[in-house]
């Protein structure tokens, strides 16, 4: 049996931990042919290196990053751990999948019970990374979100990249937005979700997980990797 290692960032936020665990329960339901275990790259345990080492003793392992873009943790932490074990491989992160834009649009709908207004503007609020590929991933997600909602969309980052979310919110207001909504491009409650919430938008949507569509992306990433082996 191949092991699917669902690797999240890690968080000290109980709500964030609960959201990730609920997501993993959903993945187990969708991938009955695999053993599904959790690992993290930061903050919590068990760390990805230890989990790959333990699981690859008896099984092939596929690491699916529960991350939304190709940043340091995906390109360095996870990749380095995978490359140390010949029975391990990794998939792309989740954020460029079209279903992510569907979830983002639904989170916005839930955050706006009275619907869209003239003068609304959405800032797609991402964690941020110094890796240019991560910025491109967010741009892909923003493009897909634009096709799903009837208002303009710009991008802001909580750290590492520019513009910062607070600056993107201010820029939207300066160009005439009457209400600025931050679309949380983060997986679960935690540090980065807090930065999004504190960036000054009028409305902030919830993080993406748990959601059965996010679990479905994880399952698809895993199965695609297995076929490629």
Broad structural category: alpha/beta
Oligomer: single chain
Please, how many helices? 8
Calculate the terminal CA-CA distance, rounded to whole Å. Answer: 14 Å
Q: CATH topology of the largest domain, anyone? A: Rossmann fold
User: What is the CATH class designation of the largest domain?
Assistant: Alpha Beta
Overall pLDDT score? 95
Number of strands: 8
Strand line-up across the major sheet: 2-1-3-4
The shape, in one word, is elongated
Quick recap:
The chain has two domains: 3-94 and 210-228, Rossmann fold (3-Layer(aba) Sandwich), CATH 3.40.50.1400; 98-204, 3-Layer(aba) Sandwich (Rossmann fold). A four-stranded parallel sheet has the order 2-1-3-4, sandwiched between helices.
Give your account of this protein's structure.
This protein is 44% helix and 18% strand. A four-stranded parallel β-sheet has the order 2-1-3-4, with helices on both faces. Strands 6-5-7-8 form a four-stranded parallel β-sheet, with helices on both faces. By secondary structure, it is of the alpha/beta class. The model has no long low-confidence stretch (mean pLDDT 95). Helix 7 links the parallel strand 7 and strand 8. Helix 1 crosses helix 8 and helix 4 packs across helix 5. It folds into two domains: 111 residues, Rossmann fold; 107 residues, Rossmann fold (3-Layer(aba) Sandwich). It is elongated. InterPro entries: CbiX-like, Sirohydro_Cobaltochel/CbiX. It comes from Microbacterium aerolatum. This is Cobalamin biosynthesis protein CbiX. GO terms for molecular function: lyase activity; metal ion binding. Pfam families: CbiX.
């Amino acid at each position: 049996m191949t092991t699917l290692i669902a690797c999240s960032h890690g968080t000290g936020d109980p709500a964030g931990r609960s959201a990730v665990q609920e997501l993993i329960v959903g993945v187990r339901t969708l991938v009955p042919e695999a053993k599904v275990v959790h690992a993290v790259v930061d903050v919590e345990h068990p760390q990805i290196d230890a989990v790959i080492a333990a699981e690859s003793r008896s099984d092939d392992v596929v690491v699916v990053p529960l991350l939304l873009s190709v940043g340091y943790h995906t390109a360095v932490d996870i990749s380095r751990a995978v490359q140390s074990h010949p029975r391990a491989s990794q998939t792309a992160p989740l954020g460029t999948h079209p279903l992510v834009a569907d979830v983002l649009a639904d989170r916005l709908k839930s955050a706006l019970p009275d619907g869209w207004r003239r003068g609304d503007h959405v800032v797609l609020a991402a964690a941020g990374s110094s890796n240019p590929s991560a910025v491109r991933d967010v741009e892909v997600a923003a493009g897909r979100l634009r096709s799903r909602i009837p208002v303009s969309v710009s991008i802001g980052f909580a750290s590492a990249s520019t513009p910062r979310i607070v600056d993107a919110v201010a820029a939207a207001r300066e160009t005439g937005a009457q209400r600025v909504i931050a679309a949380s491009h983060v997986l679960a409650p935690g540090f980065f979700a807090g930065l999004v919430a504190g960036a000054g938008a009028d409305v902030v949507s919830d993080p993406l997980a748990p959601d059965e569509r996010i679990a479905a992306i994880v399952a698809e990433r895993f199965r695609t990797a297995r076929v490629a082996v």
